[in-house]
Amino acid sequence: DTEVTQTPKHLVMGMTNKKSLKCEQHMGHRAMYWYKQKAKKPPELMFVYSYEKLSINESVPSRFSPECPNSSLLNLHLHALQPEDSALYLCASSQESGGGLEQYFGPGTRLTVT
Amino acid sequence: GESVGLHLPTLSVQEGDNSIINCAYSNSASDYFIWYKQESGKGPQFIIDIRSNMDKRQGQRVTVLLNKTVKHLSLQIAATQPGDSAVYFCAENNAGGTSYGKLTFGQGTILTVHP
Q1: B105 and A56 in contact by Cβ < 8 A?
Q2: Which chain A residue has the Cα nearest residue B48?
Q3: Which of A107, A96, A103 is nearest to A28 (CA)?
Q4: pLDDT tens-digit series, residues A17-43
Q5: What strand order describes the sheet that includes B62-67?
Q6: Looking at residue B85, what DSSP letter applies?
Q7: Which residues of chain A have pLDDT under 50?
Q8: Is B102's CB within 8 Å of A45's CB?
């Protein structure tokens, strides 16, 4: 099973709302990632979790708050977003040391901030 | 700075032709490269990868070539099919020796296959 699942598929939220994106994988991967992808652009790395600890934060604004409750789950908490945060948010996972570096992506959550 | 880019933003081919998608990278320290296919409304799908100690790797209908001298990567798709129509991204791993991947993506090439 090389599947990464993400919920919801679509999300519309106002600038004062609080919402969360969820990601799950059951491949035993110990590295998980959040990416942001704007239309007609490549994915841009936001966060990396390694063994459930935050390893990389690519200078992401604090209105995005990641959380890794266990090795299979990754959340992205959203608060006070701006319209320019509208994008496709992708989750990915990969094996840790000794394994391959290939990252497996979920289908994404299409976020619209109004 | 580090960057991964593509020479051609779009490629249009006839069904059955071979396709070649190119990618240039600038970080000579990169040791791992990967190609993804992204269809409309979907996440990137892994196609093939290659480590810097290799110059060629073959998969099913796909071949990746790596030329470290000129920092160039290419993806060859044999007998291209309409289902191959998508955006193709190359990505470079610059994890700095860590055991997880930190990918930097190129800008992408839109491949359109005409029946």
Answers
A1: no
A2: A102
A3: A96
A4: 999 999 999 999 999 999 999 988 999
A5: B4-5, B19-25, B72-77, B62-67, B56-58
A6: -
A7: 98-99
A8: yes
**Is the Cβ–Cβ distance between B11 and B77 less than 8 Å?**
no
**How close A79 comes to chain B (CA, Å)?**
24
**Residue B106, pLDDT above cutoff 60:** yes
Put simply, whether A109 touches B (Cβ < 8 Å) is no
Which region holds residue A86: left if phi is over 0, alpha if psi is between -120 and 50, else beta?
A: beta
- Is the pLDDT at B13 greater than 70? The verdict is yes
Specify whether the CB–CB gap between A106 and A92 falls below 8 A: yes
pLDDT on residue B97? 61
B43/A50 Cβ within 8 A: no
Q: What is the mean pLDDT of residues B24-28?
A: 86
Interface contact A107-B32, CB threshold 8 A: no
What's the distance, CA B5 to chain centroid?
10
Amino acid at B97: G
Burial bucket for residue B28 (CB in 10 Å: 0-12, 13-18, 19+): exposed
Cα nearest neighbour of B89 on chain A? A42
Phi and psi (nearest 5°) for A2? -115, 40
Is residue B21 a contact partner of residue B38, using CB atoms and an 8 Å limit? no
Question: Is the CB of residue A73 less than 8 Å away from at least one CB of chain B?
Answer: no
Tens digits of residue pLDDT in B49-76: 999 899 999 999 999 999 999 999 999 9
